[in-house]
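TASK: fixed-backbone design
INPUT:
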C-alpha cells in the first residue's frame, strides 16, 4: 500500500461502499426503534431505553477489545480485513432479530429478546466500525488525501443515512411489522454483499504495521489517555454525543406529538441528510485554505445553533425542524470529514511517542465515548418520556410531555455543543506541528529501511 500516493477511484469507492448498509441499520435503530418498540411491539419505553444504555456500557468492553485485537492481528489479509469480513453476517443476523421478534412474544420475554439483539448488533457494529475507521487512517499519511478518503466515506455514509431517514423510517412508521420484516431482510443481504465486495477492492495493508499494535491493551489504553490531544478530544466528543444522542430517537416523537405532522418525518430527515451531503465538499474546500482546528470550532457552534433552534418548535411549525436540520446537517459534515483526519494525526503523535501504530485503540476510544454518550441520552429519553406521562396508545399527549420532548431535543444539545466548543478551543495540535512530527516519523522509517 503506497501511503503517499493518491488512492484510486475504485479503492476509494470500495472503502466507502461498505458503510451505507451498516449505517442504514444503525441510524434506523437510533431514530425509529424506541417508537417502534413502544407502539408496534408494546414494549415499555423505559425498559427499552435501559437496554440501550446498558448496551453502551457493554461497549466499554468491546470497543477497546476490538481496537486492541485488530491492532495486533497477524494474517496474510492484514490487520483489519478479517474483522470487516466477520462483521457483515453478524450485523445481518442481529439486525433481523431486533426488528422481527417471534409473534406473540411480550412482557419480559420480549425485553429479553430485544436485549440479546441490541447487544449482538452493537457488538457486531463495533467489529465493523473500529477496524474500518482505523484502516482509513492507514490508507495515507498525507493530510489532503486523508480528507479525501474520509470525505468519500462520509458521502456514502450519508447516502445510507438518507435512505434510512426517507425510506426506512417511512416503512417502519406506516408499513407495520410485515413491511418492516421485508425491509430488514433486504438490508441484511446488502450488508453482507457490500461489506465483502467493498473490502475486497482495497489495496493490500502495510505488512510493516503488523506486530506494532502495542500488545498489552492496558498499556494501549494508558497511551491513549496519556496523549493530551486524544484526552481532550475524548471529553469533547462525549459531551457532544450526549447532546445529539437523543435527537434521532426524539424526531419522530416531536413531529408526531408536537408539530402534528408525522407524515413529514421522511422529508425532514431528508432535508438534514441533503444538507449534510452539501457540507462535505464545502468543508473539504475550506480545509484546503484554513486550519482544521478553527473550522471544527466553527462547526461546533453551528451545531449548537442548529440543534438549539428546535426549542422554538410548536404545533404546525414544521419549518423550524427543517431549518434546524439544514444548519445542523451542514455543521455535522465538518467533524465527519476533517475531524477524522485530525484523529489520524493524533495517532501519528502516538507513534512519535511510542513507536507503535495503534489506530484501532484510538478509534475504539473515540467510538466508545460517542456511543456511550448517545446511549446515556437514549436511556434518558426513555426514562423522561415515561416519567412525564407519555402514553404510546394516546392520540394526544399532555403539554408536559410535549415540553419534555422539546427540551431534550433542543435545549439540551444547545448547552452540550456550547460547552464542547469552549473546551475544544484549548486544542493546540497545529498543522505545522503535525507536519514536523510526520517528517520525523518518515525519517525514522527511511533509516529503518536503510538498516534493513
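OUTPUT:
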Amino acid at each position: 500500500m503506497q501511503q503517499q500516493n493518491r488512492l484510486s477511484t475504485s479503492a476509494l469507492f470500495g472503502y466507502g461502499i461498505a458503510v451505507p448498509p451498516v449505517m442504514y441499520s444503525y441510524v434506523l435503530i437510533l431514530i425509529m426503534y424506541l417508537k417502534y418498540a413502544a407502539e408496534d411491539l408494546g414494549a415499555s419505553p423505559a425498559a427499552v431505553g435501559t437496554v440501550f444504555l446498558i448496551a453502551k456500557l457493554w461497549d466499554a468492553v468491546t470497543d477497546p477489545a476490538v481496537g486492541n485485537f485488530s491492532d495486533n492481528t497477524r494474517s496474510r489479509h492484514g490487520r483489519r480485513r478479517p474483522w470487516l469480513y466477520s462483521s457483515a453476517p453478524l450485523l445481518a443476523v442481529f439486525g433481523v432479530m431486533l426488528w422481527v421478534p417471534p409473534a406473540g412474544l411480550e412482557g419480559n420475554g420480549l425485553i429479553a429478546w430485544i436485549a440479546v439483539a441490541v447487544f449482538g448488533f452493537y457488538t457486531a457494529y463495533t467489529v465493523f466500525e473500529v477496524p474500518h475507521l482505523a484502516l482509513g487512517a492507514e490508507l495515507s499519511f498525507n493530510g489532503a488525501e486523508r480528507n479525501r478518503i474520509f470525505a468519500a466515506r462520509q458521502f456514502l455514509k450519508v447516502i445510507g443515512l438518507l435512505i434510512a431517514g426517507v425510506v426506512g423510517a417511512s416503512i417502519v412508521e406506516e408499513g407495520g411489522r410485515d413491511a418492516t420484516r421485508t425491509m430488514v431482510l433486504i438490508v441484511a443481504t446488502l450488508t453482507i454483499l457490500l461489506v465483502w465486495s467493498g473490502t475486497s477492492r482495497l489495496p493490500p495493508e502495510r505488512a510493516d504495521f503488523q506486530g506494532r499494535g502495542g500488545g498489552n491493551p492496558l498499556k494501549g489504553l494508558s497511551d491513549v489517555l496519556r496523549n493530551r490531544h486524544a484526552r481532550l478530544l475524548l471529553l469533547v466528543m462525549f459531551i457532544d454525543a450526549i447532546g445529539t444522542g437523543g435527537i434521532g430517537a426524539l424526531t419522530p416523537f416531536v413531529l408526531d406529538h408536537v408539530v402534528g405532522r408525522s407524515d413529514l418525518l421522511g422529508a425532514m430527515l431528508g432535508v438534514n441528510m441533503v444538507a449534510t451531503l452539501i457540507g462535505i465538499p464545502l468543508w473539504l474546500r475550506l480545509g484546503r485554505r484554513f486550519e482544521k482546528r478553527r473550522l471544527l470550532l466553527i462547526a461546533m457552534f453551528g451545531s449548537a445553533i442548529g440543534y438549539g433552534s428546535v426549542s422554538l418548535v410548536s404545533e404546525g411549525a414544521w419549518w423550524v425542524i427543517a431549518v434546524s436540520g439544514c444548519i445542523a446537517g451542514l455543521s455535522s459534515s465538518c467533524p465527519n470529514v476533517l475531524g477524522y483526519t485530525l484523529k489520524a494525526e493524533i495517532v501519528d503523535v502516538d507513534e512519535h511517542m511510542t513507536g507503535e501504530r495503534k489506530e484501532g485503540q484510538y478509534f475504539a476510544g473515540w467510538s466508545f465515548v460517542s456511543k456511550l454518550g448517545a446511549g446515556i441520552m437514549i436511556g434518558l429519553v426513555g426514562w423522561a418520556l415515561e416519567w412525564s406521562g407519555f402514553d404510546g396508545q394516546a392520540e394526544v399527549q399532555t403539554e408536559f410531555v410535549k415540553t419534555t420532548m422539546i427540551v431534550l431535543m433542543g435545549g439540551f444539545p444547545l448547552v452540550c455543543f456550547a460547552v464542547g466548543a469552549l473546551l475544544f478551543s484549548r486544542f493546540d495540535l497545529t498543522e505545522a506541528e503535525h507536519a514536523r512530527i510526520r517528517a520525523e516519523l518518515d525519517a525514522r522509517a527511511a533509516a529503518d529501511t536503510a538498516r534493513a
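COMMENT: The chain has a mean pLDDT of 88.
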